[in-house]
Protein backbone atom coordinates (compact mmCIF):
# COMPACT_ATOMS: atom_id res chain seq x y z
CA UNK A 1 0.00 0.00 0.00
CA UNK A 2 1.37 3.40 -0.95
CA UNK A 3 4.42 1.62 -2.31
CA UNK A 4 3.60 1.30 -6.03
CA UNK A 5 6.72 3.13 -7.14
CA UNK A 6 9.19 1.12 -5.03
CA UNK A 7 11.32 -1.28 -7.04
CA UNK A 8 12.28 -3.44 -4.05
CA UNK A 9 11.27 -3.71 -0.40
CA UNK A 10 13.29 -1.58 1.98
CA UNK A 11 14.88 -3.83 4.66
CA UNK A 12 14.34 -1.03 7.18
CA UNK A 13 10.59 -1.34 6.58
CA UNK A 14 10.55 -5.03 7.52
CA UNK A 15 12.60 -4.26 10.62
CA UNK A 16 10.36 -1.34 11.62
CA UNK A 17 7.20 -3.43 11.17
CA UNK A 18 8.40 -5.80 13.86
CA UNK A 19 8.30 -2.93 16.38
CA UNK A 20 4.50 -2.67 16.02
CA UNK A 21 1.65 -5.00 16.89
CA UNK A 22 -0.63 -6.16 14.09
CA UNK A 23 -3.34 -3.80 15.34
CA UNK A 24 -0.92 -0.86 15.39
CA UNK A 25 0.13 -1.55 11.81
CA UNK A 26 -3.48 -1.78 10.69
CA UNK A 27 -4.20 1.55 12.39
CA UNK A 28 -1.15 3.10 10.70
CA UNK A 29 -2.45 1.86 7.35
CA UNK A 30 -5.82 3.46 8.05
CA UNK A 31 -4.09 6.71 8.98
CA UNK A 32 -2.02 6.62 5.80
CA UNK A 33 -5.06 5.97 3.60
CA UNK A 34 -6.94 8.84 5.22
CA UNK A 35 -4.10 11.34 4.76
CA UNK A 36 -3.21 10.11 1.26
CA UNK A 37 -6.82 10.59 0.16
CA UNK A 38 -6.58 14.21 1.27
CA UNK A 39 -3.36 14.62 -0.69
CA UNK A 40 -4.99 13.99 -4.10
CA UNK A 41 -2.37 11.36 -4.87
CA UNK A 42 -4.63 8.45 -5.79
CA UNK A 43 -3.78 6.96 -2.42
CA UNK A 44 -0.08 6.68 -3.23
CA UNK A 45 1.50 9.20 -0.86
CA UNK A 46 0.95 12.01 1.67
CA UNK A 47 1.79 15.55 0.59
CA UNK A 48 3.85 17.96 2.73
CA UNK A 49 0.85 20.25 3.32
CA UNK A 50 -1.43 17.45 4.55
CA UNK A 51 1.36 15.94 6.66
CA UNK A 52 2.20 19.22 8.41
CA UNK A 53 -1.47 20.11 8.85
CA UNK A 54 -2.35 16.79 10.49
CA UNK A 55 0.64 16.72 12.82
CA UNK A 56 0.49 20.46 13.47
CA UNK A 57 4.12 21.18 12.62
CA UNK A 58 4.75 24.31 10.59
CA UNK A 59 7.71 26.44 9.61
CA UNK A 60 11.31 25.17 9.33
CA UNK A 61 10.72 22.44 11.91
CA UNK A 62 7.81 21.02 9.89
CA UNK A 63 9.79 21.15 6.67
CA UNK A 64 12.71 19.39 8.31
CA UNK A 65 10.50 16.68 9.81
CA UNK A 66 8.94 15.93 6.42
CA UNK A 67 12.41 15.80 4.89
CA UNK A 68 13.62 13.27 7.48
CA UNK A 69 10.49 11.13 7.33
CA UNK A 70 10.75 10.91 3.52
CA UNK A 71 14.44 9.98 3.90
CA UNK A 72 15.59 13.18 2.16
CA UNK A 73 14.37 12.11 -1.28
CA UNK A 74 13.09 15.63 -2.04
CA UNK A 75 10.20 14.19 -4.05
CA UNK A 76 7.55 15.60 -1.67
CA UNK A 77 5.95 12.14 -1.43
CA UNK A 78 5.57 10.40 1.93
CA UNK A 79 4.84 6.70 1.45
CA UNK A 80 3.40 4.18 3.88
CA UNK A 81 6.86 2.63 4.23
CA UNK A 82 8.28 6.05 5.12
CA UNK A 83 5.69 6.49 7.85
CA UNK A 84 6.35 3.07 9.40
CA UNK A 85 10.13 3.45 9.27
CA UNK A 86 10.03 6.95 10.81
CA UNK A 87 7.63 5.99 13.58
CA UNK A 88 9.56 2.79 14.20
CA UNK A 89 12.71 4.81 14.86
CA UNK A 90 11.25 7.96 16.41
CA UNK A 91 8.72 6.31 18.71
CA UNK A 92 9.77 2.67 19.10
CA UNK A 93 13.55 2.98 18.94
CA UNK A 94 16.07 3.01 21.76
CA UNK A 95 16.71 6.20 23.72
CA UNK A 96 19.86 6.79 21.66
CA UNK A 97 18.03 6.26 18.36
CA UNK A 98 15.21 8.61 19.31
CA UNK A 99 17.57 11.35 20.48
CA UNK A 100 19.74 10.96 17.38
CA UNK A 101 16.61 11.47 15.27
CA UNK A 102 15.71 14.62 17.24
CA UNK A 103 19.30 15.87 16.97
CA UNK A 104 19.08 15.55 13.18
CA UNK A 105 15.62 17.15 13.23
CA UNK A 106 17.05 20.32 14.76
CA UNK A 107 19.54 20.68 11.90
CA UNK A 108 16.94 22.62 9.89
CA UNK A 109 19.60 23.94 7.48
CA UNK A 110 20.64 20.33 6.71
CA UNK A 111 24.34 21.15 6.58
CA UNK A 112 25.51 18.74 9.26
CA UNK A 113 26.30 21.63 11.60
CA UNK A 114 23.79 22.23 14.39
CA UNK A 115 24.38 25.91 15.06
CA UNK A 116 22.59 28.74 16.78
CA UNK A 117 20.53 29.70 13.73
CA UNK A 118 19.16 26.13 13.46
CA UNK A 119 18.09 26.16 17.09
CA UNK A 120 16.56 29.62 16.85
CA UNK A 121 14.48 28.50 13.86
CA UNK A 122 13.41 25.27 15.59
CA UNK A 123 12.50 27.03 18.85
CA UNK A 124 10.54 29.67 16.94
CA UNK A 125 8.49 26.90 15.30
CA UNK A 126 7.98 25.27 18.70
CA UNK A 127 6.83 28.43 20.44
CA UNK A 128 4.57 29.40 17.54
CA UNK A 129 2.89 26.02 18.01
CA UNK A 130 2.64 26.12 21.80
CA UNK A 131 2.05 29.83 22.46
CA UNK A 132 0.48 31.09 19.23
CA UNK A 133 -2.78 31.87 21.01
CA UNK A 134 -1.10 33.30 24.09
CA UNK A 135 1.66 35.66 23.04
CA UNK A 136 -0.71 38.65 22.86
CA UNK A 137 -1.75 38.24 26.49
CA UNK A 138 -0.71 40.97 28.97
CA UNK A 139 2.62 40.21 30.57
CA UNK A 140 3.73 37.71 27.92
CA UNK A 141 7.47 37.59 27.35
CA UNK A 142 8.78 38.37 23.89
CA UNK A 143 9.64 35.30 21.85
CA UNK A 144 13.20 36.53 21.31
CA UNK A 145 13.77 36.79 25.07
CA UNK A 146 12.44 33.29 25.69
CA UNK A 147 14.53 31.78 22.89
CA UNK A 148 17.55 33.54 24.37
CA UNK A 149 17.15 32.05 27.87
CA UNK A 150 16.68 28.58 26.40
CA UNK A 151 19.81 28.89 24.28
CA UNK A 152 21.77 30.25 27.25
CA UNK A 153 21.48 26.78 28.80
CA UNK A 154 23.38 25.28 25.86
CA UNK A 155 27.08 24.62 25.55
CA UNK A 156 28.28 25.19 21.99
CA UNK A 157 31.42 23.07 22.29
CA UNK A 158 31.92 21.73 18.77
CA UNK A 159 34.41 23.59 16.57
CA UNK A 160 33.84 23.38 12.82
CA UNK A 161 36.48 23.82 10.15
CA UNK A 162 35.91 26.98 8.14
CA UNK A 163 33.22 28.21 10.51
CA UNK A 164 33.91 30.92 13.10
CA UNK A 165 31.03 29.98 15.40
CA UNK A 166 30.89 26.71 17.33
CA UNK A 167 27.97 24.31 17.05
CA UNK A 168 26.53 21.79 19.49
CA UNK A 169 27.67 18.20 19.67
CA UNK A 170 25.33 15.28 20.29
CA UNK A 171 26.50 15.25 23.90
CA UNK A 172 25.77 18.99 24.21
CA UNK A 173 22.28 18.29 22.90
CA UNK A 174 21.65 15.47 25.39
CA UNK A 175 22.72 17.63 28.33
CA UNK A 176 20.42 20.39 27.07
CA UNK A 177 17.50 17.91 26.98
CA UNK A 178 18.22 17.00 30.61
CA UNK A 179 18.14 20.67 31.63
CA UNK A 180 15.02 21.41 29.55
CA UNK A 181 12.71 18.36 29.75
CA UNK A 182 9.80 20.36 28.28
CA UNK A 183 11.78 20.81 25.04
CA UNK A 184 12.69 17.11 24.95
CA UNK A 185 9.06 16.07 25.52
CA UNK A 186 7.74 18.30 22.76
CA UNK A 187 10.38 17.39 20.20
CA UNK A 188 9.84 13.72 20.99
CA UNK A 189 6.11 13.78 20.24
CA UNK A 190 5.82 15.55 16.87
CA UNK A 191 4.51 12.49 15.01
CA UNK A 192 1.47 12.45 17.26
CA UNK A 193 -1.69 14.11 15.96
CA UNK A 194 -1.73 17.79 16.88
CA UNK A 195 -5.21 17.68 18.46
CA UNK A 196 -4.43 14.93 20.99
CA UNK A 197 -2.70 17.02 23.64
CA UNK A 198 0.75 15.79 22.68
CA UNK A 199 3.39 15.49 25.36
CA UNK A 200 5.19 18.73 26.08
CA UNK A 201 2.51 21.04 24.69
CA UNK A 202 0.34 21.65 27.75
CA UNK A 203 0.62 25.01 29.53
CA UNK A 204 -0.94 25.30 33.03
CA UNK A 205 -3.78 27.74 33.53
CA UNK A 206 -2.39 30.42 35.89
CA UNK A 207 -4.88 31.84 38.38
CA UNK A 208 -3.66 35.19 39.78
CA UNK A 209 -4.60 37.00 42.95
CA UNK A 210 -7.38 39.56 42.56
CA UNK A 211 -6.36 43.21 42.28
CA UNK A 212 -2.74 42.44 41.44
CA UNK A 213 -0.97 43.94 38.43
CA UNK A 214 -0.25 41.10 36.02
CA UNK A 215 2.99 42.82 34.99
CA UNK A 216 4.36 42.30 38.51
CA UNK A 217 3.96 38.53 38.32
CA UNK A 218 7.15 36.57 37.72
CA UNK A 219 5.63 33.34 36.44
CA UNK A 220 4.98 33.83 32.72
CA UNK A 221 3.22 31.17 30.67
CA UNK A 222 6.53 30.27 29.07
CA UNK A 223 8.17 29.78 32.48
CA UNK A 224 5.26 27.61 33.64
CA UNK A 225 5.66 25.46 30.53
CA UNK A 226 9.37 25.12 31.24
CA UNK A 227 8.82 24.04 34.87
CA UNK A 228 5.96 21.78 33.85
CA UNK A 229 8.30 19.71 31.71
CA UNK A 230 9.54 18.04 34.91
CA UNK A 231 6.02 17.31 36.20
CA UNK A 232 3.31 14.76 35.51
CA UNK A 233 0.38 15.44 33.19
CA UNK A 234 -1.94 15.64 36.22
CA UNK A 235 0.01 18.62 37.56
CA UNK A 236 -0.30 20.76 34.44
CA UNK A 237 -3.95 21.72 34.65
CA UNK A 238 -4.18 24.68 37.03
CA UNK A 239 -1.71 26.66 39.15
CA UNK A 240 -3.01 29.07 41.77
CA UNK A 241 -1.04 32.06 43.10
CA UNK A 242 -1.10 31.87 46.92
CA UNK A 243 1.51 34.46 47.87
CA UNK A 244 3.13 37.47 46.20
CA UNK A 245 5.47 39.72 48.15
CA UNK A 246 4.32 42.89 46.33
CA UNK A 247 0.75 42.17 47.42
CA UNK A 248 1.25 40.35 50.74
CA UNK A 249 4.50 41.97 51.89
CA UNK A 250 7.84 40.28 52.60
CA UNK A 251 6.51 38.24 55.50
CA UNK A 252 7.39 34.63 56.29
CA UNK A 253 4.36 34.29 58.61
CA UNK A 254 2.00 35.55 55.92
CA UNK A 255 3.62 33.19 53.44
CA UNK A 256 3.11 30.18 55.71
CA UNK A 257 -0.41 31.28 56.55
CA UNK A 258 -1.42 31.66 52.91
CA UNK A 259 -0.07 28.32 51.77
CA UNK A 260 -1.32 26.31 54.79
CA UNK A 261 -4.95 26.51 53.65
CA UNK A 262 -4.36 24.45 50.51
CA UNK A 263 -2.99 20.99 49.85
CA UNK A 264 -0.59 19.95 47.16
CA UNK A 265 2.84 20.79 45.77
CA UNK A 266 4.05 24.37 45.40
CA UNK A 267 6.34 26.33 43.10
CA UNK A 268 8.49 28.95 44.83
CA UNK A 269 9.92 31.68 42.58
CA UNK A 270 12.38 34.43 43.51
CA UNK A 271 13.62 37.46 41.62
CA UNK A 272 16.63 39.01 43.33
CA UNK A 273 18.03 42.52 43.08
CA UNK A 274 20.55 41.34 40.47
CA UNK A 275 17.63 40.54 38.13
CA UNK A 276 18.07 36.76 38.28
CA UNK A 277 14.92 34.61 38.51
CA UNK A 278 14.98 31.09 39.96
CA UNK A 279 13.26 28.86 42.48
CA UNK A 280 12.18 25.37 43.43
CA UNK A 281 9.36 22.88 43.16
CA UNK A 282 8.34 21.57 46.60
CA UNK A 283 6.54 18.25 46.36
CA UNK A 284 5.70 18.25 50.09
CA UNK A 285 3.91 20.91 52.17
CA UNK A 286 6.01 23.58 53.88
CA UNK A 287 5.87 22.37 57.49
CA UNK A 288 8.07 22.97 60.52
CA UNK A 289 10.98 20.51 60.73
CA UNK A 290 14.33 20.44 62.53
CA UNK A 291 16.06 18.75 59.59
CA UNK A 292 15.74 18.14 55.86
CA UNK A 293 12.69 16.24 54.64
CA UNK A 294 10.77 15.67 51.37
CA UNK A 295 11.03 13.25 48.47
CA UNK A 296 12.80 12.88 45.15
CA UNK A 297 10.09 14.73 43.22
CA UNK A 298 11.38 18.14 44.34
CA UNK A 299 13.77 20.09 42.13
CA UNK A 300 15.46 23.45 41.60
CA UNK A 301 15.25 25.61 38.49
CA UNK A 302 16.58 28.74 36.82
CA UNK A 303 14.33 30.95 34.69
CA UNK A 304 16.44 34.01 33.87
CA UNK A 305 18.93 34.77 32.35
CA UNK A 306 19.09 31.07 31.49
CA UNK A 307 16.52 28.30 31.72
CA UNK A 308 17.40 25.02 33.44
CA UNK A 309 15.82 22.30 35.58
CA UNK A 310 17.92 20.51 38.22
CA UNK A 311 16.43 17.27 39.51
CA UNK A 312 17.69 15.18 42.45
CA UNK A 313 20.88 13.26 41.75
CA UNK A 314 20.36 10.72 44.55
CA UNK A 315 23.56 11.87 46.28
CA UNK A 316 21.59 12.57 49.47
CA UNK A 317 18.06 13.11 50.79
CA UNK A 318 18.41 16.79 51.69
CA UNK A 319 15.44 17.88 49.60
CA UNK A 320 13.32 20.47 51.48
CA UNK A 321 14.07 22.68 54.48
CA UNK A 322 11.51 24.52 56.59
CA UNK A 323 12.62 25.69 60.05
CA UNK A 324 10.53 28.09 62.14
CA UNK A 325 11.34 29.56 65.58
CA UNK A 326 14.40 27.43 66.31
CA UNK A 327 17.04 29.03 68.54
CA UNK A 328 19.99 26.83 67.55
CA UNK A 329 22.44 28.31 65.02
CA UNK A 330 22.76 24.87 63.45
CA UNK A 331 19.09 25.09 62.46
CA UNK A 332 18.71 28.27 60.37
CA UNK A 333 15.16 29.59 60.33
CA UNK A 334 13.73 29.83 56.85
CA UNK A 335 12.91 27.68 53.83
CA UNK A 336 15.08 26.12 51.18
CA UNK A 337 16.20 23.19 49.06
CA UNK A 338 19.23 20.90 48.94
CA UNK A 339 22.80 21.09 50.19
CA UNK A 340 23.33 21.23 53.91
CA UNK A 341 22.32 23.52 56.77
CA UNK A 342 23.74 27.05 56.31
CA UNK A 343 24.95 26.01 52.83
CA UNK A 344 21.80 25.20 50.83
CA UNK A 345 21.21 25.01 47.11
CA UNK A 346 18.59 27.71 47.72
CA UNK A 347 17.65 29.32 51.02
CA UNK A 348 15.42 32.21 52.15
CA UNK A 349 15.76 33.46 55.72
CA UNK A 350 12.68 33.67 57.93
CA UNK A 351 12.70 37.45 57.50
CA UNK A 352 12.47 37.02 53.71
CA UNK A 353 15.03 39.81 53.39
CA UNK A 354 18.08 37.73 52.48
CA UNK A 355 19.21 34.26 51.55
CA UNK A 356 21.85 32.28 49.74
CA UNK A 357 22.39 29.84 46.88
CA UNK A 358 25.34 27.48 46.56
CA UNK A 359 26.26 24.70 44.17
CA UNK A 360 24.91 21.51 45.70
CA UNK A 361 25.21 17.80 45.03
CA UNK A 362 21.56 17.16 46.00
CA UNK A 363 20.39 18.50 42.65
CA UNK A 364 23.67 18.82 40.78
CA UNK A 365 22.83 22.52 40.57
CA UNK A 366 25.16 25.52 40.35
CA UNK A 367 24.81 28.79 42.23
CA UNK A 368 21.48 30.03 40.87
CA UNK A 369 22.28 33.75 40.95
CA UNK A 370 25.17 36.07 40.18
CA UNK A 371 26.64 35.48 43.65
CA UNK A 372 25.97 33.11 46.51
CA UNK A 373 24.37 35.78 48.73
CA UNK A 374 20.95 36.87 47.50
CA UNK A 375 18.70 39.81 48.27
CA UNK A 376 15.12 39.02 47.23
CA UNK A 377 13.14 41.65 45.37
CA UNK A 378 10.03 39.59 44.57
CA UNK A 379 8.87 36.26 46.03
CA UNK A 380 5.97 34.23 44.69
CA UNK A 381 4.43 30.91 45.63
CA UNK A 382 2.01 28.95 43.44
CA UNK A 383 -0.09 25.97 44.43
CA UNK A 384 -0.26 23.17 41.86
CA UNK A 385 -3.82 21.91 41.71
CA UNK A 386 -3.63 18.33 40.48
CA UNK A 387 -6.03 17.58 37.65
CA UNK A 388 -9.29 16.20 38.98
CA UNK A 389 -8.29 16.70 42.63
CA UNK A 390 -11.24 18.96 43.47
CA UNK A 391 -13.73 16.76 41.63
CA UNK A 392 -12.35 13.66 43.36
CA UNK A 393 -12.98 15.23 46.74
CA UNK A 394 -16.58 15.98 45.75
CA UNK A 395 -17.46 12.82 43.90
CA UNK A 396 -15.19 10.18 45.44
CA UNK A 397 -14.80 7.36 42.98
CA UNK A 398 -17.87 8.25 40.88
CA UNK A 399 -17.37 8.41 37.13
CA UNK A 400 -14.52 5.94 36.96
CA UNK A 401 -15.92 4.01 33.96
CA UNK A 402 -16.02 7.07 31.71
CA UNK A 403 -12.58 8.15 32.93
CA UNK A 404 -11.14 4.77 32.04
CA UNK A 405 -12.65 5.04 28.55
CA UNK A 406 -11.05 8.46 28.10
CA UNK A 407 -7.68 7.10 29.26
CA UNK A 408 -7.89 4.22 26.77
CA UNK A 409 -8.66 6.67 24.00
CA UNK A 410 -5.79 8.90 25.10
CA UNK A 411 -3.38 5.98 24.76
CA UNK A 412 -4.45 5.56 21.13
CA UNK A 413 -4.00 9.29 20.58
CA UNK A 414 -0.49 9.13 22.01
CA UNK A 415 0.60 7.05 19.02
CA UNK A 416 -1.39 9.21 16.60
CA UNK A 417 -3.83 6.40 15.73
CA UNK A 418 -7.20 7.40 17.20
CA UNK A 419 -9.80 8.51 14.64
CA UNK A 420 -7.44 7.34 11.91
CA UNK A 421 -10.23 5.54 10.05
CA UNK A 422 -12.61 8.48 10.09
From TrEMBL:
Keyword Transcription: no
GO MF annotations in UniProt: calcium ion binding
Domain EF-hand: 94-129
InterPro entries hit by this protein: EF-hand-dom_pair, EF_Hand_1_Ca_BS, EF_hand_dom, TLDc_dom
PROSITE patterns per the UniProt record, alphabetical: EF_HAND_1 (PS00018), EF_HAND_2 (PS50222), TLDC (PS51886)
Domain TLDc, first and last residues per copy: 217-385
Pfam hit, one: TLD
Presence of the UniProt keyword Transport in the record: no
Keyword tags: Calcium
Protein name: TLDc domain-containing protein
Amino acid sequence: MGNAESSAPDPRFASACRAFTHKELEDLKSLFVSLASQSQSNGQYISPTVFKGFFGIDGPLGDRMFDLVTQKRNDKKLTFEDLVIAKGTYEKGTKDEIEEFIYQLLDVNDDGILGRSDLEAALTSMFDNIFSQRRSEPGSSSQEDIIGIFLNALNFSKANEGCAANSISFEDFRKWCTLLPSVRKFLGSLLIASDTGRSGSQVPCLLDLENIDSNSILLRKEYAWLIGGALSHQELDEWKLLYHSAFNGLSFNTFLGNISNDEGPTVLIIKDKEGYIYGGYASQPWERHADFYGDMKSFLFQLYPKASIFRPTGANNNLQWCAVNFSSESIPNGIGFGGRANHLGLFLSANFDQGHTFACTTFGSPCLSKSSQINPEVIECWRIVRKGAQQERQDGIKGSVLDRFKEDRHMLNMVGLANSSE
